[in-house]
Amino acid sequence: MLGAMKNILVVDDSRIMRNIVKNIFSQLKIPCNYLEASNGKQAMELLQGNKIDLVLLDWNMPELSGIDFLKKVRAMTEYSHDKLPIIMVTSEAARYNVVEALKNGATDYIIKPINEKVFTAKIADLNIR
Q1: pLDDT tens digits for 49-67?
Q2: Which one of 20, 36, 55, 59 is CB 3.0 to 4.6 Å from 66, fit for a cystine?
Q3: Domains of the chain listed by start with CATH number
Q4: Count of CB atoms situated within 10 Å of the CB of 31
Q5: pLDDT tens readout for residues 71-81
């Protein structure tokens, strides 16, 4: 599997934020295929139809919020915590939100605006290359 192209699902209702995330990955020179969703409902459909290696997930979105998507995914045996990394990437910076996300199975939490060094370090910790 070493060197295999990774599939990264970027879930954010802002196209600009999705592009920022993709640009950071491009700078890191991690070979990736990007799947994009503008809400949790679309993300769920993409997750069920594709092999996903990493999910980058916003909190506030229409139709199905990031936290509700997270809860649904973690309730599925095939996407338990150790089988699919999910990083919340959100402007929800309150301690309560961070705790709720981690308690519900988020692998990590990045607060917007994205600090590229923090983002890079958290991605490196996942060892998805």
Answers
A1: 899 999 999 999 999 999 9
A2: 59
A3: 6-93+105-126 (3.40.50.2300)
A4: 11
A5: 999 999 888 76
